Amino acid sequence: MSAPVTHQARSADAGPRRLELSLLGRWEVLLGVVLLGLVIVGARLSPVFATAQNFSNLTAAAMEVGIMALPMTLIIIAGEIDLSVESTVGLSSAVLGWLWAAGVSLWLAVPAVLLLGAAGGLLNGLLVTRAGLPSLVVTLGTLALLRGLASVVLGPRAISTFPTEFTAFGFGTLPGTPLPWSLLVFALLGLVLGVLLHATWLGRQVFAVGKNQSAARYAGVRVRRLKTVLFVLSGTVAALAGVILTARLSSARADAGQGLTLAVVTAVLLGGVDIFGGSGTLLGVVLAVFALAMLQNALRLADVSTQLQSIAVGLLLIGSVVVPNVVIRFRRGGGTR
User: How far is 257 from 259, CA to CA, in rounded Å?
Assistant: First the structure.
């Protein structure tokens, strides 16, 4: 009599798992439909929306968020979060401008800025993994710390004497196409991290840590080292985004990147990544980056106020967390019954 009961229990457990995987598999399809809908609605709102020049502009404007969202995806899947990315952007921009104004070549200044971003990520990683502090609290602290350092380095002034070759990288396009150079950086980084996350043992460890950190540790995963590496990656990539933003705006400022953290986290969660860790795909995040960019661009072209645009982004953030969890819980309940 025990065998049928065991089989039924396994079937009951397998049902919700299949439903959850099915839901996650359809999330990317849903985002694809949303993208198509945004193109249609945007074209109706403004005749400028569907032009190649506008798509080039909205893509360039979204790339800093998209680039930072890629390593943020891995961090959230691992059960942590990094809220300091926007201040890393500001600090990298300020230091880059300060070094250039001091006569340092960009060939030396840019690697120095990337190393600075890696150091900020290492600080976050050590405080989280070695001191045992919550990443939410730690990165809120470094958010303020790094922004303050940026203000000390550059103050209220702006540096806008960069060479044309550098600024052309920020708002120039690939030869013969309307695609910005930053899209190439985003695509290469997304490809590398996508393969790393979904096709290697390291990616499996990231998912394992997010699902059950204690079990992953007993299975031999070096949890603290893995999380530290992810924070270093996030800091380095945020510094890279700061360099790209400086080139696109042709100006280095201490307040560069202000407010980008909300957009980055929104893109990751809208892409189907579980805020509690353990599940998500990089493809969903990529689609969400462009969906968010199209929505903001369409609202801007329709002369919607900045306040209403912020409300729309806030509702997207709440919805991207609430809707998947409600559907999964509802379906799990149905499967159990």
Answer: 6
Domain harbouring 179, CATH code: 1.10.3470.10
pTM of the model: 0.87
Domain count for the chain, please give it. 1
Q: Do the domain assignments include residue 277?
A: yes
Q: Which residue range(s) make up the domain with 253? A: 13-336
Question: Where residue 129 falls among pLDDT bands split at 50, 70, 90?
Answer: very high
- Give CA separation, 83 vs 136, 187, 227, 299, in Å: 7, 23, 15, 26
The half-sphere exposure of 204 on its side-chain side, counting CA atoms within 13 A, is 6
Domain membership of residue 68 (yes or no) is yes
On the 0-12 / 13-18 / 19+ scale of CB atoms within 10 A, 213 is: middle
Residue 272 lies inside a defined structural domain of this protein: yes
Residue (of 194, 184, 203) closest to 284 by Cα position: 194
Per-residue pLDDT reduced to its tens digit, 263-284: 999 999 999 898 888 889 999 9
Cβ–Cβ under 8 Å, residues 238 and 232: no
Query: Is 3 domain-assigned?
Result: no
Residue 310 has pLDDT above 50, yes or no: yes
